[in-house]
C-alpha cells in the first residue's frame, strides 16, 4: 500500500449510548473512533425499484492502513457524508483494511 494513494481523509465513528432525557429515552450519539487517510477504490451509484418506490444507493470502497477494532457497527464520514460499513476485508496480515460502505440517506 503506497502512502501517495491515501489521498482522502475519513473519520471512523463509533456509536455510544446517549444521555437519557426526562422521559428516559436516549438517542444514540456518534463519537470519533479514528481519523485516517484512505484511498477510494470504487464509487458507484445504483438505482433500483423497491416496494416503496424507486431508490438509489451510493456504494464506496475505502482502503486504509490497519486499525484494530473496526467493526460493521462503526460508520465512516467523508466530506460530511455518512456511510454505513457493510463489509470489512483484511488486506494481508494486518497490513490494511478494505471497507465497503453504503451512503446513509435520511
Structure write-up:
It is globular, with a radius of gyration of 16 Å. The chain has one domain: Beta Barrel (Thrombin, subunit H), CATH 2.40.10.370. It has a six-stranded antiparallel β-barrel. The mean pLDDT is 86. It contains no helices and six strands. The relative contact order is 0.24. The protein is mainly beta.
Summarize this structure briefly.
This protein is an all-beta fold and 106 residues long.
Question: Can you give keywords for this protein?
Answer:
mainly beta, Thrombin, subunit H, 6 strands, 0% helix, globular
Write the layout of secondary structure elements.
Layout: E1 8-16, E2 29-50, E3 53-65, E4 75-78, E5 81-91, E6 96-103
Antiparallel strand pairs: 1-2, 1-4, 2-3, 3-6, 4-5, 5-6
Overall pLDDT, averaged?
Answer: 86
Q: What is the CATH class designation? A: Mainly Beta
Low-confidence stretches: none
Give the strand order of the largest sheet, numbering strands 1, 2, ... along the chain: 1-2-3-6-5-4
The CATH topology label is: Thrombin, subunit H
Percentage of residues in strands: over 45%
- Count of β-strands: 6
Structural class by secondary-structure content: mainly beta
CATH architecture: Beta Barrel
Give the biggest beta sheet. 6 strands, antiparallel, barrel
CATH superfamily descriptor: Protein of unknown function DUF3599
* Number of domains as seen in the coordinates: 1
* Structural Rg: 16 Å
- Fraction of residues in helix: under 10%
Separate helix tally: 0
The global form is globular
Helix-strand sequence: EEEEEE
Distance between the termini: 34 Å
Amino acid at each position: 500500500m503506497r502512502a501517495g494513494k491515501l489521498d482522502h481523509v475519513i473519520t471512523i465513528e463509533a456509536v455510544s449510548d446517549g444521555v437519557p432525557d426526562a422521559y428516559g429515552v436516549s438517542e444514540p450519539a456518534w463519537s470519533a473512533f479514528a481519523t485516517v487517510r484512505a484511498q477510494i477504490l470504487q464509487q458507484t451509484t445504483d438505482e433500483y425499484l423497491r416496494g416503496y418506490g424507486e431508490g438509489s444507493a451510493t456504494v464506496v470502497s475505502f482502503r486504509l492502513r490497519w486499525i484494530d477494532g473496526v467493526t460493521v457497527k462503526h460508520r465512516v464520514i467523508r466530506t460530511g457524508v455518512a456511510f454505513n460499513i457493510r463489509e470489512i476485508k483484511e488486506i494481508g496480515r494486518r497490513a490494511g483494511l478494505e471497507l465497503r460502505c453504503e451512503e446513509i440517506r435520511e
